Protein 1
Amino acid sequence: MPDSVKGAPAGPLRLTLDCQALADNWRWLAAQSGTAQAGAAVKANGYGLGAAEALKTLAEAGARVFFVATWAEAVELAPLASGLELHVLHGVRDEDMALAGALDARPVLNSADQVRRWREQGGNRPCSVMVDTGMNRLGISVSEVASGLLQGLNCDLVLSHLACADEDVAMNRVQLDRFAGIGAHVPGCRMSLANSAGISLGRDYHFDLTRPGLSLYGGIARPEAQGHIRPVARIDAQLLQRRTLLAGESLGYNATFTAAQPMELAILNLGYADGYWRGFSGRGRALAGDVALPVMGRVSMDLTAICVDAMPTLREGDWVQIDFELSHAAQLSGMSQYELLTGLGNRFERRWA
Ligand SMILES: *Cc1c(COP(=O)(O)O)cnc(C)c1O
């Protein structure tokens, strides 16, 4: 390939990531965690934003304890800077053992089989254990802990996970009481229960370590976080074309929109393959400064149309911001804030600023 054609120019779709906001969000969550240490979930590629950059920024802000879901995600973050801990939430399968031995990361054991495997083949290196207190997803049971399953295991962190921390329901207290009850069986072991939402449930939920994820990246998990958590991700898309839709003409797949009168449109390089979901069809909006430009017709895989009647000067090659304020975007699209973040695709040029 001749040098002149190597490397595409910067693409027409940009994700600008605000390091300062990420660091400030962690600091707020750490302060809200009281005397507990605050960790950070960086699974799913740092909730879609970029795990390596997120980890680096969070470590600079003071975070020491990190969580990923899988060993492949742990490999992406190796080698770890000294003083940091990385926990792999989905535990160890037989086929993970070699890697688990070689990597500076520890498993969160989730089942009696995993506990046995780590005891027999893990050289009794440090590990963590997930205890199920009512979510019925991953974890050993409270009664397994009580019957001594963990005795002699080099477990330095026990975790449990709240099912409904974003709601005010009795189940939070039920899970809390069950979790507190295992403390006597794991002496000397750190304990961790709260995710982003759980941190706002108050002191009782903090134990030794909290594990925020969503709110680090700008998600508002509970009303208490409103006004404190700042957005981290900003989307900008370039206009590929500007056109006039005449009265009576329709737009896009399945012709879901027909113009009643002539309308100026801009076609953006953004679609559901980028995580701009079909739920934004006819509902989402772009922003040119303060001017809102509504999404028209159906969002397609790679393209979205907006009405630019309000912006006569906007032309091919110009950029607009996409309104991606997470709570509002979740309402509009019918997706959760988690889905909106983790769905952000790999065609964005990710810029940490
Ligand atoms: C993802 C995850 C978290 C972070 O949860 P958020 O709701 O994103 O704050 C914490 N703990 C466990 C076990 C998780 O899987």
Note: The mean pLDDT is 96.
Protein 2
Amino acid sequence: MIKETVFKPFLQEDDYQAITDSLKLGWLSQGSDTKKFEDAVKEYAQLHDRYVVGVSTGYAALHLALVIAGIKDGDEVITPSLNNIADFQAIENSGAIPVFCDIKDDTLCIDLDKAEKLITHKTKALIFIDYASWQPSYKAIKEFGEKHNLIIIHDAAHSFGWKQNNLYTGNFFDYTMFSFDPVKTITCIDGGILVLKDKEKAQLAQELRIMGMGQPAEINYQNKRAWSYDVKHKGYRYHLANSHAALGFNQLQKIDSIAQKRKQLFITYSQALADCKDMIIPQTDLNDIIPLLYVVRVQSSIRDQFRKELHEQGIETGLHWTPGHKFSYFKHYNHANLKVTNNVFDTFLSLPFHPTVNLETPSRIASIYKKLTHNPFYISHEVERQPIL
Ligand SMILES: *Cc1c(COP(=O)(O)O)cnc(C)c1O
């Protein structure tokens, strides 16, 4: 029986109460709690000169970003193949083609040298992510976008509350997406935020998220509906419901203690696994990030056996993620020159990582690993790494 799962939502009595209180307002659509959550996100992440638009999911935020950026049929959007399916489907649903890019072996984030080789006259945008506990250089990505005249969309699903050079995530690019789905650092059950730099674009996002209805969001924010409005655009049902936002708001009040628990677990893992031979463990500065996942790499020859033995001991592990180019629906898109991605896919695994993981679990994982690798059939060598091309 699995006792330790990779993820578990961290919900407490005050979270249930927050949802109940919101339901009792008698207004279930986007409303006063949506506004409260948007304002709280803006303040927490110090998005002073940005516009914060609450939406139903991180996926919805990405899709809206692409639509608002003017991405259309036949355009190409570069993104790492090691990414969430939401990104690929958002690109698909904008009419564009996802162009899968390789990652760097040390950060598992996008490799800009390889991205450069993928640029054609159809390339309009690049979506990059922060991954697990790593972030790429935002400055380098910004310069890359300027050099090639590309729209940059920052998928910050993993990096809500992270900083780079003392500035919070969300402040770096014209479009940033946050996700508050069930397994993210804080959750709205399902919810997302689109952060925009431009006021007109933010107004457009507010219309598109609710069927293109051209009514001021302020009316809904008072838990009221407008009875007269125009529709000027193709729209979507992407609004963030009151009760979902109420949960997000309540979770945000506790984010420092949630972050503390996650950092403590990260440190406990790093200490427990430090002397595991041939295992690559994440290195990062915990002052700047709140780790979302704990991803390690081991020799491909033992990875599946290691997962199996952990499973037998009640410890679930995950794979984040199957790369996009390996799925039937996407496999006809670029799948060349993805050596690092392919290698990472054969060697990585995600360990249980949420605020209520037992702090004994990391050392149990270490001893299962050591037993496996002290087997005479195990030939010690470094985890296969691909040279950077
Ligand atoms: C979770 C996640 C998404 C999708 O967000 P949803 O809120 O689940 O739609 C997109 N990108 C990354 C990197 C994610 O981790």
Note: The pocket of pyridoxal-5'-phosphate is lined by residues 57-59, 83-84, 86-87, 129, 155, 157-158, 179, 181, 192 (CB under 6 Å).
Protein 3
Amino acid sequence: MPRAKTGSFSFERFVRKDLRDMEPYAPIAFPGSLPGDGKAANGELIKLDGNENVYGCSARVQRALADYRGYHIYPDAEQRELREALAGYTGLSAAQILAGSGSDELIELLLRLTLDPGDCIINCPPTFGMYEVNAKFCGGEAVAVPRESSYELNVPGILKAIGPTTKAIIIANPNNPTGTLTPRKEIEALLETGLAVLVDEAYYEFCGETVADLLPTRGNLIVLRTFSKWAGLAGLRIGYGLMSPELVQRLMAVKPPYNINAAANLAALESLKDVEYLQGTVKALVKEREHLAQRLLELEYLQPIPSAANFILCRVLGRDAKQLWRELRTKGIYIRHFKELPEFIRISVGKPEQSELLIQALRR
Ligand SMILES: *Cc1c(COP(=O)(O)O)cnc(C)c1O
């Protein structure tokens, strides 16, 4: 983008000192945003880089958004209708639920609420990049306790890393980008520390594993979920947290009042009225995940890691993974490559015909 003229003025001196040389979160490079980005032979984009639901959202959402006549009215700051509907879906009470503009917003709000300057979270890379970025943005630090060779948690390492300024432990389960699950026993062991334990279940619907049932007895547990992945609402930004009623009230007091916009609110409500349809797409994606993993395994230069989510991380052997990522983009096939994991690619699971085109391209 061309640089706008600002004269000799530099904003730099107004930026918080601790943020001046912060590593930015590297989001998905939007299709068409890099030189050489192309379309597939059928003229379409094969977008397998964002763990989005390729089947899209429920048709009920499309209809309801078109018919809605209340866009000129601020939404309910207390999210009553949505929290009630989520209570029905999760089996918890509305008092234990708070919705956010994507679960990303809830991660930030939770860290802003809890971290004093210099406080720490424990982070277990390779994992979702927003935990570290948000910890820094909220004035804290992320202490990394890397995962073991098969991406399992290093629980003794986590326990050892806890210090007087440690406030929270954050675990994505299943983990992104590895797709691996953490056994419930290990999460229970982390809860025993008495620290806030944030379990990010963004891919819950793809595996059915949850620790939400521990909430009534574990006041330090926070479970995050989202409509972005299973319900096909990534573009509308809607997620939710399950936590103690006390913490819900705390967050309610500091969140932007209208953090859930009317369209996202309505889309989530309609999705919850069409769970059976959405579960059908989840089932198709899980089936395709297993099929795709098998096909990837047949390629001698790829080592797919068994996944409980809607994506597959693959180690790339004897080839440059970034180059592969680049080349696929020119053919209209978008997958993910991470700077932190230079020898890997992450592929979101799509439709069978998209897997077919991907495999054909990977064979060449
Ligand atoms: C995609 C993802 C999120 C973000 O979800 P949004 O609700 O879209 O903000 C959070 N956590 C993990 C682990 C994810 O993979």
Note: The longest helix spans residues 275-297.
